[in-house]
Amino acid sequence: MIVGGIDVITLTATLMGASTPVLLAATGELVAEKSGVLNLGVEGMMIIGAVAGFAAAVTTGNPVLGFVAGALAGALLATLFAALTQLLLSNQVATGLALTLFGLGLSALIGKGYEGVRPPGTPKLDFGPLSDIPVLGRILFSHDWVVYLSLLLVALVWFVLRFTRAGLILRAVGESHDAAHALGYRVVAVRFAALAFGGALAGLGGAYLSLVRVPQWTEGMTAGAGWIALAIVVFASWRPWRVLLGAYLFGGITALQLQLQAAGYAIPVHILSMAPYLVTIVVLVILSAIHRHGVQAAPACLGKPFHASS
Amino acid sequence: MNRRSFLKTSAATAVVAGAGLPAFAADEPLKIGFIYVGPVGDMGWSYQHDQGRKAIEAEYGDKVKTSFIENVPEGPDAERALTQLALEGNKLIFATSFGFMDAVMNVAKKFPDVKFEHATGYKRADNVATYDAKFYQGRAIQGTIGGRMTKTNKIGYIGSFPIPEVYQGINAAYLAAKKVNPDVEMKVVWAYTWFDPAKEADAASALIADGVDVLLQHTDSTAPQAKAQEAGNVITFGQASDMSSFAPKPRVSSTIDNWAPYYVKRAGAVMDGTWKSEATWGGIDTGMVEIGEISDAVPADVKAEALQLKDDIAAGKAHPFTGPLNKQDGSAFLAEGEVATDEQLQSMTFYVEGITAEPPK
Fold first, then answer.
1. Which of A28, A192, A244, B332 has the greatest number of C-beta atoms within 10 Å?
2. Which residues form the signal peptide (chain B) (predicted)?
């Protein structure tokens, strides 16, 4: 299926892989923010996940262990953030920024010696005859397992937040930590868990970047993907399915602009490079403007410090 | 050792060392410094420069002492890094990226007795020399192999920045490919980076999605090679370094920047006092541009043709830019039989006739 010189099927298949790191990180950050904590360290957690995942996969020769290590490393860094902001009550914005800088520096240090090394490959899942279905086969059944895991996680987060008691508690902590505390919920423990989950997903996203999407380790290779994830959470009004839409839109236009260049369209390169940011923001802003209903989209306690004595 | 006696000892050592310095000056090794734009482990551009540094050490042993600073961003920080190297007593400093140009000129003014060598630049001074390699010669050989081997008749090129060096590469590859395959088409994607594996991988994916089955890169990482391998039926060429870990396929050959002979020569010139500021632009003939082994994935006759072209270029019998040749807009560039001069090539910022892509503005 070719429209205007662009193969739409290939584009759709490409964008799913290209968007996965940002999607994972944004889904994780959504959960953290729903619990009322603003963690600006997504970029740092992603790159730590990227280097830890890469190192583990190269050392063991097993990409799955790489993803596990990436998630653990991200969660570990997030736990550090949680200890600083929840127990020592440090400023969340400053601590998050510091976490990003720390992650970038530490990853560069760990990554020495892994430059120019090739990681073991992550194969595409084999769906047998399913992947031979015209159009849908290429789009839906031609990916590696992490892509499906990321979609599953979006659905899971949506379901848990909306339909389960655990989700309700998490949201309660994010909306009013004092009320949740008065009801006997352990605010700090819930936030620790939410942050660690967010960190694990960011680390997983980073590992996907270094193990599948590039696949290679380089200093600073996340190149701002963590900040994109943060922005997508805000513009998606903290809703999981809109995060998915935002991430795929961003990844899709990023892939599309390169294909437009390849197809020889006479559009200035700089406008094309700007397009992913512009279109994603515009679409998500319009969406949240339509569905406002006068409700504040952000969790009411987002970024506010909590101490049981207050 | 308590603190006081430690202080005494170290003070004494410092005095001895200070007093001893002038006496040893005659035997002191020549200190040579390098700054790199990327990590030495990039397996491409900076890696090759570091090989040159090691060649100096291997050649002169104790007579030289080299050091390097990697990952120096192009901009004000380069000036700090160069100043630091000069203050540390380096008498010869290699700055190995185009964007270090103004930093080199500024620092060179402050240290007139330090010799500077700037790669791929064009600004010189009494103590600043420039050197570059004719990468486009390698591109012509890649174009020949690509033109013969493409099945889709589409050759992809990942451009870094729209500067003459990259235009030379795109044009040389296209002209050589078209000579052996008139139906060939050139697809260009500009990445606007020298080294960003994620971006390079995306650019490679986009070109492959567009039907390209021969992929040339003007960026330094091996990410496009990995993407080509994943796609299966795409061939690539190593850039700056051999990238032989991707041989025999997708990487079927490479252009290797061999700075070692030049670096050894220039270090020697400083030691025997014959160093002077000049501009060097070496090609296949001087060994500065090397063609990496052509793998078995290339049919024997194509390989022979490519090697013949390499010999002809080295012998001066062939030139990738030989007239009649028009620019993309149809205006004349070279007349029948005319060969492009170095000056013409060094200011080349246009596509040649036949390339349909739009040059970036």
1. A28
2. 1-25
pLDDT tens-digit series, residues B205-231: 899 988 999 999 998 888 899 889 888
Record: contact A213-B188, CB cut-off 8 A: no
Output the furthest CA–CA distance in chain B (Å, rounded): 84
Record the tokens describing residue B272, joined without a space. 């025997």
pLDDT-based confidence at residue A8 (cuts at 50, 70, 90): confident
Whether B226 contacts chain A with CB within 8 A: yes
For chain B, say whether A216 makes contact (Cβ under 8 Å). yes
Lowest mean pLDDT among A256-260, A285-289, B44-48: A285-289
Would you state the pLDDT for residue B25? Answer: 46
Q: Does A297 touch chain B (CB under 8 A)?
A: no
Q: Does B73 touch chain A (CB under 8 A)?
A: no
User: How close A9 comes to chain B (CA, Å)?
Assistant: 10
Q: What is the DSSP code string of B241-272?
A: S--GGGTTTTEEEEEEE--HHHHHHHHHHHHT
* Residue B132, helix vs strand vs coil: strand
Query: A115 and B222: CB-CB below 8 Å?
Result: no
ipTM value: 0.76
Type of residue numbered B219: T
Please state which CATH number belongs to domain A2-290.
Answer: 1.10.3470
Contact B39 A219 (CB under 8 A): yes
C-beta of residue A65 within 8 angstroms of C-beta of residue A225: no
**Can you list the domains of chain B with their CATH numbers?**
7-133 (3.40.50.2300), 136-257+290-346 (3.40.50.2300)
**The token pair that represents A34 in the structure block:** 């729903």
